Amino acid sequence: MEKEGALMTEARVPSAREAAEAWESLFRAQVSVMRRLLADDIWGDLSMREYDVLFTLALAPEETLRLRELNENILMAQSSLSRMVERLEKRGFVRRHPSPDDGRGVLVSLTEEGSAIQKELGRRHVRSIAHYVGPAMDAEELVQLRQLTERLRAAQAEIDDV
């Protein structure tokens, strides 16, 4: 139900076409911004995907996640992520270690060096995002966009697979 003034109205269920058009628009907007971000000369020796791994770990409690949890937040096949984590470990940015709760589980932690490079690149990345996204919308629209995308993401846990 939507609240409109003092009246409550039933929310209209969107058609399949409306849902597809909204998704297409969101996806194409994301692609156009991502292409620009990928082309930016801010990544140094890291790829944007490697940065995403460091960023995801930086958001985690104690900068550590199970490899499976990391994979849930990264759009990449598990085998590709495992190889990337191995390369990042060789460079000193992450550390893999066994889970104390489950000997078969692997934890991935951000190292001090990984945290430092993530913060450095993160500042540049935020400036680029602000440059490409900021002029397109006002502050209220950006808040609304964030709320809508968070709602879409959270709802996926409750929606059955096709």
TrEMBL record:
<dbReference type="InterPro" id="IPR036390">
    <property type="entry name" value="WH_DNA-bd_sf"/>
</dbReference>
<dbReference type="GO" id="GO:0003677">
    <property type="term" value="F:DNA binding"/>
</dbReference>
<dbReference type="InterPro" id="IPR036388">
    <property type="entry name" value="WH-like_DNA-bd_sf"/>
</dbReference>
<protein>
    <submittedName>
        <fullName>MarR family transcriptional regulator</fullName>
    </submittedName>
</protein>
<keyword id="KW-0804">Transcription</keyword>
<dbReference type="InterPro" id="IPR000835">
    <property type="entry name" value="HTH_MarR-typ"/>
</dbReference>
<dbReference type="InterPro" id="IPR039422">
    <property type="entry name" value="MarR/SlyA-like"/>
</dbReference>
<keyword id="KW-0805">Transcription regulation</keyword>
<dbReference type="GO" id="GO:0006950">
    <property type="term" value="P:response to stress"/>
</dbReference>
<dbReference type="InterPro" id="IPR023187">
    <property type="entry name" value="Tscrpt_reg_MarR-type_CS"/>
</dbReference>
<dbReference type="GO" id="GO:0003700">
    <property type="term" value="F:DNA-binding transcription factor activity"/>
</dbReference>
<dbReference type="Pfam" id="PF01047">
    <property type="entry name" value="MarR"/>
</dbReference>
<feature type="domain" description="HTH marR-type">
    <location>
        <begin position="23"/>
        <end position="154"/>
    </location>
</feature>
<keyword id="KW-0238">DNA-binding</keyword>
